[in-house]
Specification:
By secondary structure, the protein is an alpha+beta fold. Helices cover about 45% and strands about 10% of the residues.
């Protein structure tokens, strides 16, 4: 499993301080990774800003080049001018360490060196220098870290929560989760009985609209969506069965859905945050397959503000609900390929005023 995000310079990180950079990894990803390779891009022109950040599960022995090709290829395509590798994972054949007794890699060097060599070789072939390559068992206060290129390079990690990156993400209103699983639980469905009721109501409504085109009914659905966006801006996202049905019907119109993409701009604004709260509430409140609509909007909004982990999970959720959902498939492919959020921003260039008249 891979995850991509783009810090885009919004989170200040000391790229020349290995310990600070490792400690910033959870805040760049949005969660604390385990058994992972994290590949951090350095943006042009000077390489002083964090660019594309990708994470992949540590591969089985003999499969290092597959992961290296995938992650390094994305970074090269993105046009980054340098890269940093951070490997996170316990040492083979050693018992897990306790918080007070961090493990130390053997004298021969950190583990998973073959993976680092594969990434280095792929980058070198494209003329992209690897600036750092480090290992740690886990990002935590006092955790030991080591460099791959220099056996004398290493030390203890600072408190991750005390880094500049932590302060920056907190100021942005972002949350860093203890694990991917904790983040994924954000998208867990709500009341099962309510989902069953709404599924039947949606089936009935779709059949009724299929038999008789009712412009007034569609207008009512769009008005419900506009009102829900206004209420979300005031912090209110509780939805009744009937409200969920009307909003989901409105989102089934492609022009309305495209207009909703515009609410992700500008990323991190009050409007975009409010819309994202609504999409998240709808993901939890909407049965499959209709859940794919709000889940795709949540994925797009999260990616636009640089949260590739949540974006990927939202799109996985959308495709689980409706494997044929075209927008979700396109967005998921774009994220896996490491396409920058600003490149996808054009998808949301339809004015939000189109919610009034999708025809």
């Amino acid at each position: 499993m891979t995850t991509a995000t783009t810090a885009d310079g919004r989170i200040p990180v000391r790229l020349t301080d290995p310990a600070q950079l490792i400690a910033a990894v959870p805040y760049l990803l949005g969660f604390h990774p385990t058994d992972s390779l994290v590949l951090i891009g350095h943006q042009a022109p000077h390489g002083r800003r964090v660019g594309l950040v990708q994470r992949g599960d540590l591969p089985a022995k003999g499969h290092e080049h597959e992961l290296a090709e995938w992650l390094a290829g994305n970074l090269i395509e993105q046009g980054e001018v340098g890269a940093t590798v951070v490997v996170l994972g316990g040492l083979p054949g050693t018992p897990p360490s306790t918080p007070n007794t961090p493990s130390t890699p053997p004298a021969t060097g950190p583990p998973h060196a073959a993976l680092v060599e594969a990434v280095t070789g792929r980058l070198k072939a494209a003329g992209v220098p690897l600036l750092h390559a480090m290992w740690t068992e886990k990002v935590r206060t006092g955790g030991r870290w080591r460099c791959y290129q220099n056996q004398d390079c290493g030390g203890a990690l600072p408190d991750p929560a005390g880094t500049v990156a932590a302060a920056a993400t907190t100021a942005q209103g972002s949350v860093t989760f203890s694990s991917r699983e904790e983040m994924r639980r954000l998208l867990d469905p709500g009341d099962r009985d309510a989902l069953e009721r709404r599924s039947k109501l949606l089936d009935d409504a779709v059949c009724e609209l299929g038999e008789r085109d009712d412009p007034e009914r569609w207008a009512t659905c769009r008005a419900e969506l506009r009102d829900a966006l206004r209420r979300a801006a005031q912090g209110e996202v509780n939805l009744s069965d009937e409200q969920v049905v009307r909003i989901v019907l409105a989102l089934s119109e492609s022009t309305v859905r495209d207009a909703c993409l515009a609410t992700a701009s500008p990323p991190g604004s009050a409007r975009s945050r409010a819309a994202e709260r609504l999409w998240l509430a709808l993901v939890r409140a909407t049965p499959a397959p209709e859940r794919a609509g709000p889940a795709s909007l949540l994925g797009y909004a999260a990616y636009q503000r640089g949260d590739g982990a949540l974006a990927g999970m939202a799109l996985e959720n959308a495709l689980a609900a409706d494997p044929g959902h075209l927008l979700s498939r396109l967005l998921a492919q774009a994220i896996v390929r490491g396409i920058a959020p600003k490149t996808l921003a054009g998808l949301g260039n339809v004015s939000a005023e189109r919610l009034d008249d999708p025809g």
